[in-house]
Amino acid sequence: MAGLEQSLFQLKFTAKQLNRQAAKAAKEETQEKAKTKKALTQGNNDIAQLYAQNAIRKSNERVNLLRLASRIDAVASRVQTAVTMRSVTGNMSQVIRGMDKALQTMNLERISLVMDKFENQFEDLDASTNYYESATNNVNALTTPQEEVDELMNQIADEAGIEMKQGLNETKVDIATPPAANTISEEKEDKTTATRSMGPRGAATSLNAVRTKVSLPDLDWDFGALEPHISGQINEIHYTKHHNTYVNGYNTAIEQHAEAKSKGEVKKTIELQKAINFNGGGYTNHCLFWKNLAPSKQGGGEPPASDSDLAKAIEAQYGSLDNLISVTNGKLAGIQGSGWAFLVKNKDAGGVLDVVTTANQDTVTGPLVPLVAIDAWEHAYYLQYQNVKADYFKAIWNVINWKEAEKRFLVN
Catalytic activity annotated for this protein (predicted)? Predict the structure, then answer.
């Protein structure tokens, strides 16, 4: 096995091992959460806190393993490209030599055969490129801890319809907690501004908290302002129909959830929590989506200022903005079905940048601060780009509002 192939094998093997360890940590995290639920059911809050701490540690372990596996996978992708290009270059050289000989003899049949082989080489290259791009960029979101241990216990109790004993909040443990799968949470904020916030207080709210209804945010530009990159028709339908559906869905779900909870309907409460998570995520993600878009006259498409902290971070980690865009587009292409891609800042890792993807309307949480959000649902592009979503991924960077991203990078 040649040097590059050997390196590629080792990288892929290591990434696979890390993913297995992450899956094991996720399983253990689920087990600890189940123990937490059982302890809460029995009224053993102190024991429940210990299990909750274990769940948090396993969540941190899982996230770190997945992040490392993702980085190794990215390196493997580059090595794979080098291996593929080396093979293609060798094949092309053979084709060119065959063409020279065919032209010298003016053998039309031979020239035709050589041209067929030449075209096949490009088809093989396209197929290889698409396969490796899909295989290496299908990275799911890394949801991470956010609230305190007692809030994790509140969340588990809320989902299971368990009435907790008073006095839980008297014991604070300074450890962050991972949200349950597909839950939505965000930074604590004043309730008076909740209707214009970047998202509702999702499943991580405490038992006594009152969920606030949300409404559509105001846009900073007209529907047609992003043309020709995103059509006015798409923006109008996207905003007035799709985003508004998530607003109405969330508001309806929290009303029904409160009613079901007051009646002690545990099963219905749990089912409605799923609707809250889905619609709340759709609301939250779209609020950020609109803010990180802008027409050219408002700075859309202009790269971050070269002396800004965000520009320096991009340069340090990705080498250039173009490289970051390439990485992001690759991960967008790897999304199976519908989802989102986020450029995030990890507050728990010294503010490093990362590109993560989520399925459906899941959103990033915890120490991951979203700087840029890109909608990969078909409703975001199909009327204009139809099934060529790669063109949409390229075009949207012409209207990305990097000034907004810079603000979020500094504030958070």
Answer: 2 superoxide + 2 H(+) = H2O2 + O2
Say which CATH architecture domain 189-412 belongs to.
3-Layer(bab) Sandwich (3.55)
Query: pLDDT (tens digit, 9 = 90+) per residue, 244-275?
Result: 999 999 999 999 999 999 998 888 988 899 99
> Alpha-carbon distance 151 to 204, whole Å?
7
Entry pTM: 0.52
Give the side-chain half-sphere CA count within 13 A for 371: 28
| Higher pLDDT, residue 174 or 269 | 269
**Does residue 228 have a cis bond before it (omega within 30 degrees)?**
yes
- Give alpha helix (H) positions in 106-143: 108-137
Angle CA(60)–CA(61)–CA(67) in degrees, nearest 5? 90
Name the residue among 359, 322, 361, 364 with its Cα closest to residue 343. Answer: 364
Count CA atoms within 13 Å of residue 232 on its CB side: 5
Domain with CATH 3.55.40.20 in the chain: 189-412
- Of the candidates 331, 282, 321, 281, which has an alpha carbon nearest to the alpha carbon of residue 406? 321
How far apart are alpha carbons 321 and 316 in whole angstroms?
10
Residue at token pair 């120490």:
367
- Nearest-5° Cα angle at 388, 117 to 386: 140
Burial class, 111, CB count within 10 angstroms (exposed 0-12 / middle 13-18 / buried 19+):
middle
Interaxial angle between packed helices 3-41 and 45-105, expressed in degrees from 0 to 180 and rounded to the nearest 10: 160
pLDDT (tens digit per residue) in 73-88: 777 777 777 777 666 6
Q: Which residue carries 């004043």 as its tokens?
A: 190
As a whole number of angstroms, the distance between CA 25 and CA 32 comes to: 10
Q: Which two tokens stand for residue 390?
A: 């790669």
Question: Who's near 83: CB < 8 A, 6+ residues apart?
Answer: 4, 5, 8
Amino acid identity at 249: G
Q: What is the pLDDT of residues 206-240, one digit of tens each?
A: 333 346 789 999 999 999 999 999 999 999 999 99
Query: CB within 8 A of 143, min separation 6: which ones?
Result: 63, 178, 179, 181, 362, 364, 365, 366, 368
> Using omega within 30 degrees of 0 as the cis cutoff, is the peptide bond preceding 178 cis?
no
**Residues, the chain:** 412
What separation in angstroms does the CA of 328 have from each of 162, 230, 351? 42, 18, 18
